[in-house]
Design a protein that fits this description.
- This protein is an alpha/beta fold and about 170 residues long.
- It has one domain: Collagenase (Catalytic Domain).
- Helices cover about 55% and strands about 15% of the residues.
- It has helices at about 15-25, 40-50, 70-75, 80-90, 95-110, 120-135, 140-145, 150-165, and strands at about 1-5, 30-40, 60-65, 75-80.
- It has a 4-stranded mixed beta sheet with strand order 1-2-4-3, sandwiched between helices.
- Helix 4 (about 80-90) crosses helix 5.
């Protein structure tokens, strides 16, 4: 199920629901995934409640606890900030709809048990493989770690430089 508490340009519930299923199957995640697309203020509340961090974040994942049988039918939930998605999309030069899909993929990998904070690049490699397979632009971990070229700030500077040189 996909719930939009806050809309994202060029992205419908049906389109996102179909992408969630494609990404879930590509990643090998068995159970269904619910996605909430919401505001920064709601993400801040969720981030504070579940991670103890008093600030909004781009994506949160909530895996289902329990045995393997429970996880076969329902893998968990993902919450995404529409506000951060729009801002990141602008900075990276792609659409907000694509950014939400990147975050969904990232969340699905967390639901599978990946953790980029201490896995020696396993999640980053898997995210990169799936991103290419699903035809998505640069992934979340790649942009944070600079694995594939310039950082977000460097790419933003380069885009601004190119814009200035055209005028």
């Amino acid at each position: 199920m996909v719930i939009f508490e806050k809309r994202v340009p060029d992205l419908t519930e049906l389109a996102l629901s179909r992408f969630v299923d494609r990404a879930r199957l590509a990643a090998g995640l068995r159970g269904k995934v619910d996605v909430l697309v919401t505001s920064n203020s709601e993400m801040k509340v969720l981030n504070q409640r579940f991670r103890g961090m008093n600030k909004p974040t781009d994506v949160l994942s909530f895996p289902v606890s329990g045995d393997g049988e429970a996880r076969k039918s329902f893998a968990g939930e993902i919450a995404i900030s529409a506000d951060i998605s729009r801002r990141n999309a602008r900075a990276l030069g792609h659409g907000a709809a694509e950014e939400v899909k990147i975050l969904v993929l990232h969340g699905i990998l967390h639901l599978q048990g990946y953790d980029h904070e201490g896995d020696d690049g396993r999640m980053a490699r898997r995210e990169s493989q799936l991103r290419m397979r699903l035809r998505l632009p640069v992934g979340l971990i790649e942009r944070e770690t600079g694995m594939h070229g310039a950082s977000v700030r460097d790419r933003r500077r380069e885009r601004m430089r190119r814009k200035r040189s055209k005028t």
